[in-house]
Design goal:
Elements (H helix, E strand, L loop, with lengths): L3 E4 L2 E3 L2 E3 L4 E2 L3 E2 L4 E3 L2 E4 L4 E4 L7 H7 L8 E4 L4 H4 L2 H7 L4 E5 L2 H9 L6 E4 L4 E3 L4 E6 L9 E5 L4 E5 L16 H16 L3 H11 L6 E4 L9 H11 L4 E8 L5 H15 L3 E6 L5 H8 L2 E11 L2 E2 L1 H13 L5 E8 L5 H8 L6 E2 L3 E4 L4 H20 L4
Parallel strand pairs: 8-9, 9-10, 10-11, 15-16, 17-18, 17-19, 19-21, 21-22, 21-23
Antiparallel strand pairs: 1-2, 2-7, 3-6, 4-5, 7-8, 12-13, 13-14, 14-15, 19-20
Helix pairs in contact: 5-7, 5-9, 6-7, 8-12
The structure holds flavin mononucleotide (FMN) and fe (ii) ion (2 copies).
Length: 392
């Protein structure tokens, strides 16, 4: 790939993973991803900011092949997709030290077995003088893990944010001119990685707004040379505002739950509410996560299977619970043959969702006229709740 110039003596030195399709063995990434490492030359010191996923160490080392000396490797985040190639860089540059946060040091030792004497720690607000370039470290705990920090290069007004503001999007250039593409990828990324830490991120955004930033350089996806819109998008996502939308993740084996879901969709649409349905047997879980970012209400649909909810529904409900979206209302609809605890099963899976539960609709077998009336009642109740929130 080679180095790509961002500013004088500031270069991108990362790797583009065009073909990766799954992250953390969980989340689909349809557009691949990048692991962005950066190289900064000061008059006195040369530093590398983060590294790349271990699967692409060879690409990073190829980018560094002409570089004779590296003084410091900045490790913003100990997760392996950024730290995984640090051992290879330390091996090549025998005098290099890793610079990380106080909490980062033991994590780098645990995860990568880096020796203690190759790591130096920096406090929040510390500055590293490189000679004509000054890098300031800003602690941002829980911008994925507890040790995470970002850094700001004063002279060039670049904010290096590691996972924050990232997107899983492969590009051949530094920037992506197709804003809609980055917009969807960044929202997917926020949903999957950052949403559980919404309240922390809200505080970090306020602090980071004080820096005069011209370029945001995250560790996944394209850089932003017009950072305003990505900052604005994040401010909206972390806010308490929800939209007039209902999402319906569901599974149906023989079509009865499907009939309920379809009827509910029509009834909600007739009330002026936007609906997104996700048949969980075929859906991209990333799309469900995106929808969870700002939706007001979720209705989960499931048949009864071996006395409980369908396992695929439980898995999606478990994920939604872990992502802690700002949903306000939830309900459950579904069908059974002879008995079971489908509703309780789902309710037990979502304790983190601080939602008001609306009366579920549970029917025996295929829905009849009465079942459809119950579904319409649920749609009406959701509309009333949305009106109370002033979003309908
Ligand atoms: C594998 C399997 C297991 C089932 N287990 C139960 C059960 O434990 N309790 C029950 O009431 N119904 C059970 N049923 C019946 C379904 O819940 C019932 O057919 C329901 O109407 C299916 O809804 P659907 O058409 O949306 O798939 C089971 C059905 C299947 C296929
Ligand atoms: Fe991470
Ligand atoms: Fe990452």
């Amino acid at each position: 790939m080679g180095l790509k110039k961002i500013k004088d003596n500031v270069f991108w030195a990362g790797a583009v993973d065009w073909n990766r399709r799954l992250f953390d063995s969980l989340i689909p990434i349809p557009d691949g991803t990048t692991y962005n490492a950066y190289l900064i030359y000061g008059k006195d010191k040369t530093i590398l900011l983060d590294t790349v996923d271990p699967s692409m160490t060879h690409m990073l080392m190829d980018n560094l092949k002409e570089i004779k000396n590296i003084d410091f490797i900045i490790s913003h985040h100990a997760e392996q997709d950024h730290s995984g190639s640090i051992p290879a860089v330390l091996e090549k540059y025998g005098n290099a030290k890793v610079v990380t946060s106080l909490k980062g040091k033991p994590m780098l030792i645990d995860h990568l077995h880096i020796s203690d004497n190759r790591i130096v720690t920096v406090e929040d607000g510390a500055k590293l003088e490189l000679g004509g370039k000054t890098l300031e470290f800003i602690y941002t705990p829980w911008v994925h893990w507890p040790e995470t920090m970002v850094s700001y290069l004063h002279e060039d007004k670049i904010l290096f944010t590691c996972d924050l503001f990232g997107s899983h999007l492969s590009t051949s250039g530094l920037y992506c001119k197709e804003e809609w593409k980055v917009s969807e990828a960044a929202k997917r990324y926020y949903a999957e990685v950052m949403m559980p830490f919404r309240t922390n991120i809200k505080k970090h955004l306020e602090r980071l707004a004080k820096y005069n930033t011209e370029i945001i350089a995250p560790s996944h996806g394209p850089l932003y040379n017009n950072p305003e819109w990505i900052l604005k998008s994040h401010a909206k996502w972390v806010s308490d505002d929800v939209s007039n939308k209902v999402i319906i993740p569901y599974v149906s084996m023989h079509g009865s739950t499907q009939l309920l879901v379809d009827h509910l969709t029509d009834a909600l649409a007739a009330q002026g509410i936007q609906v997104e349905k996700f048949d969980l047997t075929v859906t991209d879980l990333g799309k469900l996560a995106i929808a969870l970012v700002d939706t007001a209400t979720m209705v989960i649909g499931s048949p009864t299977v071996l006395t409980g909810a369908h396992p695929i529904v439980i898995s999606a409900a478990f994920l939604a619970n872990a992502l802690r979206p700002k949903l306000k209302f939830a309900s459950i609809i579904g069908s059974f043959g002879w008995g079971g605890k489908m509703i309780e099963d789902i309710q037990k899976t979502i304790p983190n969702l601080k939602v008001q539960m609306l009366e579920p609709v549970l029917i025996k077998g295929k829905p009849d006229a009465q079942a459809y009336i119950a579904v319409e009642r649920l749609a009406q109740e959701i509309a009333t709740k949305h009106r109370e929130l002033n979003i309908l």
